[in-house]
Automatic annotation (TrEMBL):
Lineage, uppermost ranks: Bacteria, Bacillati, Actinomycetota, Actinomycetes, Micrococcales
Organism: Gryllotalpicola koreensis
Protein name, as recorded: Methyltransferase
Methyltransferase small domain ranges (all copies): 36-203
Keywords on record: Methyltransferase, Transferase
Keyword Iron: no
Database matches in CDD domains: AdoMet_MTases
GO biological process, one term: methylation
Length: 211
């Protein structure tokens, strides 16, 4: 998810423990072709709606793999993770974030929707042996290139061979430079532009066979 500040408290979405009043509230959303009510709150990214970047990502990705381990990297309150879990009820979905309130919201929303296949965890709590059939992410561009690149270099190599990651980034925040970096920084991977919509690019990153 892209960086956003809570101006009243100084919190931002990648605060580990937001100090603001949670201000929990229901919102109506459409995920995986279903009209749903979920819970969001202060101190997480885009608490009032599914943000445009995430909506563009969800509109331009194929059906998720039916099984295996699937990753939402930077899950926020959970629109991507919930979409993956709804679309692939027999898969295990890992919703990963550093924000404890975001993880609490994902877990709550999954439980309220009757989804038992979502693990909402901090990055260090994903077992090292887990490899992913796909990764979907609206990554935190505004944390800075060094942090962003380190995060992608950590998680993209955990793709299964022949599998894809799907990333969304705003054009005015460097989506094209991110694509160029991905093309050079990760041997054995190939990056293509899958879609452009509403000022965002969707990038497909494939781990090639034999790598």
């Amino acid at each position: 998810m892209l960086y956003v500040s809570d101006m009243s408290s100084g919190d931002h979405y990648f605060s580990a423990s937001p100090g603001s009043d949670p201000k929990l509230r229901p919102i109506d959303v459409r995920l995986a072709d279903r009209d749903l009510t979920v819970t969001t709150g202060a101190g997480v990214f885009s608490p009032d709606h599914v943000d445009t970047g995430t909506a563009v990502l969800l509109a331009n990705t194929p059906e998720p793999p039916p099984g295996g381990h699937l990753l939402d990297l930077g899950c926020g309150w959970g629109p991507i993770a919930l979409s993956l879990a709804l679309g692939s009820p027999h898969a295990t979905v890992w919703a990963v974030d550093v924000n404890e309130r975001a993880l609490e919201l994902v877990a709550r929303n999954a439980a309220d929707l009757g989804l038992t296949n979502v693990n909402a965890v901090r990055p260090e709590d994903v077992p090292a042996e887990v490899a992913f059939m796909t990764i979907w992410s609206n990554p935190p561009i505004r944390v800075g290139k060094n942090e962003l690149h380190s995060m992608l270099q950590t998680w993209l190599p955990r793709l299964e061979v022949g599998s894809d990651a799907w990333l969304v980034a705003a054009r005015n925040l460097g989506s094209d430079s991110l694509q160029r970096w991905l093309d050079t920084a990760l041997p054995g991977f190939g990056t293509t532009r899958a879609a452009t919509s509403k000022g965002f690019r969707v990038l497909r990153v494939r781990r090639h066979a034999g790598q």
